[in-house]
Specification:
Blueprint (H helix, E strand, L loop, with lengths): L6 H4 L9 E3 L2 E3 L1 E3 L6 E9 L4 E8 L5 E4 L5 E4 L7 E6 L5 E6 L3 E6 L5 E6 L4 E6 L5 E6 L3 E6 H6 L16 E4 L5 E8 L2 E6 L3 E6 L17 E4 L6 E8 L5 E7 L2 E6 L9 E7 L9 E4 L5 E5 L5 E5 L5 E5 L6 E6 L5 E6 L4 E5 L15
Antiparallel strand pairs: 1-2, 3-30, 4-5, 5-6, 6-7, 8-9, 9-10, 10-11, 12-13, 13-14, 14-15, 16-17, 17-18, 18-19, 20-21, 21-22, 22-23, 24-25, 25-26, 26-27, 28-29, 29-30
């Protein structure tokens, strides 16, 4: 990552402002530094270090890492030549991955920011995700293929001073989805990968494991398909385990937020739980995220507001105003005490979801 002396170049005037309240309204921490629309936000909590991180993908080609609570800039990952659509950290925070419009995904040292490996693709990479056991990386994009790479194999290919971009690494498995694109991937567990597609469907594949996994042929048919029935692109997917133990997939597509049961121990796994129309659309940007308590969710998209909604009814409980461009992405932090929103205006804003300076807000239902 760029060091503090280079921060003035990568992140000018990047000291966050806030939080505060004004007449009961939550005033967010504003995190400048990006210069183009945001594309993705992901939090990671490291319990051993009592630290929360926030990584952001942006069309300015420069994904950034911040303190997830204060918004303070930590570093910038420099190396992509196209808009960065996806950025994520593995569970230890020691590895980062990014997907870009320059037809590649990259692996980075999550501590130093050093570029480790470049994974070449045939088209724009829209999404990437580490498996929960940090053994694999899944990617997807405009090619309509889900690729699954072995991280052990990928990292062994990088031997300094060999250029990281010289590594030509084939994935363990390549799963083609003809006639559509892959907008989001995530892992349900270390052997199950989900892909949100351009046709409004979420496809589920079982990935082989064990010593002979690499000798198993590519999975051909998904083990399940969840259909939003919108016929529109899956703009966002987020997996949450709520306080009551439910495993729920939140999906944003068209003008709807949908919730699917993805508890593999349940007889109704992969069934639709809730479906709510919202007063925005997700045709070009936006997303949704369920609070860890499972009672409310946030949604943002085609206008400038983030809306807090009731999980059971879809009723809008509160609105968060402050961005100067459409909402591109949002996520709750792991304990639900705040959420981050990224906009076309190039800023990230951190919003408290509890009391602000003693003033009760509608967002207080998140407590």
């Amino acid at each position: 990552m760029t060091n503090q002396s280079a921060a003035a170049v990568a992140v000018s005037n990047s000291k966050p402002s806030g939080p505060a309240s004004r007449g009961g309204q939550v005033i967010p921490i504003v995190c400048p530094g990006h210069t183009r629309p945001l594309a993705e936000l992901q939090f990671l909590h490291l319990p051993d270090e009592n630290k929360t991180l926030l990584v952001s993908a942006c069309h300015d080609k420069l994904p950034m890492l911040r303190d997830g609570l204060s918004g303070d800039w930590i570093g910038t990952l420099q190396g992509h030549k196209g808009a960065v659509w996806s950025a994520t950290l593995d569970k230890t925070g020691s590895l980062a991955a990014t997907g870009s419009g320059d037809f590649c995904a990259k692996l980075w040292d999550g501590v130093t920011g050093k570029e480790l490996v470049t994974l070449q693709h045939g088209h724009i990479v829209k999404t990437c995700a580490f498996s929960p056991d940090s053994l694999y990386l899944a990617t997807g994009g405009q090619e309509g293929k889900v690729r699954v790479y072995s991280l052990e194999t990928a990292l062994q290919t990088y031997q300094p001073p060999k250029s990281a971009t010289a590594a030509e690494l084939e994935p363990c498995w390549t799963i083609a989805v003809p006639g559509t694109t892959i907008l989001k991937v995530c892992w349900l567990d270390s052997n199950t990968v989900l892909a949100g597609c351009g046709d409004g469907k979420i496809r589920v594949w079982s990935i082989p494991s064990g010593a002979d996994a690499n000798d198993v042929a590519n999975p051909e048919q998904p083990v399940a398909i969840m259909d939003t029935a919108t016929g529109k692109e899956i703009r966002d997917m987020d997996l949450a385990i709520t306080g009551n133990g439910a495993t729920i997939l939140t999906v944003a597509s068209s003008n709807q937020v949908l919730f699917f049961n993805v508890d593999t121990k349940s007889s109704s796994c992969f069934s639709l739980l809730k479906q709510h129309k919202v007063p925005i659309h997700f045709l070009n940007e936006g997303g949704a995220c369920l609070h860890p308590n499972g009672r409310v969710f946030i949604a943002g998209g085609s206008d400038l507001w983030v809306r807090l909604c009731d999980y059971e009814t879809g009723e809008v409980l509160d609105t968060f105003k402050g961005h100067h461009g459409p909402i591109r992405c949002l996520r709750y932090n792991p304990n639900g005490s705040a959420f981050a929103s990224g906009s076309e205006d190039g800023t990230i804003r951190l919003w408290e979801t509890t009391k602000a300076d003693g003033a009760e807000t509608a967002a207080g239902v998140c407590k």
